[in-house]
Amino acid sequence: MAEIKNQDFEGLLRKKPLPYHVFVIYGPDRGLVSERAKELAALSGVDLADDFSLVRLDAGDLSSQPGRIIEEMQSLGLFGGSRLVWVKGAMNEKPLIDALQLLTAEPPAESMLIVEAGDLKKGTGTRKIADASPVIGSIACYADDARALNGLIDSELGPSGLRLTPDAREALLSSLGGDRLASRNEIRKLALYCKGQEVIEEHHVREIIGDASAISADEAVDAVLSGDRNQFLHAAEKIAQSKTPIFLVLQGCLRQFQLLDQMRAEMEEKRLQPAQVMQTLGRSIHFKRKPILERALRTWTGQALAREMNRLQMAILQSRQRQSLEESIALQLLLSITLQSARGNGRS
Q1: CA within 20 to 30 Å of 80's CA: 16, 192, 230, 286, which one?
Q2: Please, is 314 exposed, middle or buried when counting C-beta atoms within 10 Å of its C-beta (0-12, 13-18, 19+)?
Q3: Does domain 214-347 bear CATH number 1.10.10.10?
């Protein structure tokens, strides 16, 4: 088994050469998946500016050309040498699973394959092959905990010489998490805002990152789950007026869908009713919000939840990469999910 734990990834990067030619990187933190894929690509030995040596594919390419991965892995660059095949947006596509099985049986000698995947369930499809294969580096990317976030803050602020007061650090930590790329961008934005100062105070964090306006954000998430279009638009207007980043609503919605996914799995495994699951996994939820989540559990299937979590993760990543379109990306997706909830499409 070549499963690489979160704490072992930095050690993997220090190994020369890399011990694997095939990597599957997956998990709910799309930003971290993307970041780690870039780090591995930089160590591949392939010229990333050479279109003949680097081949970029997505899930759609695999569906239309099932044998494309193996064909590209077996080809040589225009001037010889190894190639890097980089697949993005993957899940459990059959062409990908077939390719991983073939590469496990006949490991590539030179060329490298990097697969960026979503939140793969243990023991299924792509992850089942990757976790069990001795020649595939299987790398999970979960949301940063407090320790990891503190390390990220220190690494980003260290070069600038900026120090955080305890209150400022606490405020910053409460605004981060869920997506590594998004967290990194927020810290860099704070560092730029405080350039020329020595100490970052709590009010600096609030001014540039913004108070999450939890009430408005929760209202928007509840409207999405309830399928209430008018309530969602009203909450979105309040969020805009308060200058709360709409990105935080995407994060809040993703967290709720992750909780629903966990509850749905518990229901199916133990054959429980939504009300019974709410008594265990939903104990920390405010009593006024429990009926909303209970109704959502009756509406959304595990398959539909996985689909929407994937879309939310992608939207979070896109909103950080293209911040000028952040509001448009977030509102379009959130409204789409709201309308699906209203139509009962959580069962599709």
Answers
A1: 16
A2: middle
A3: no
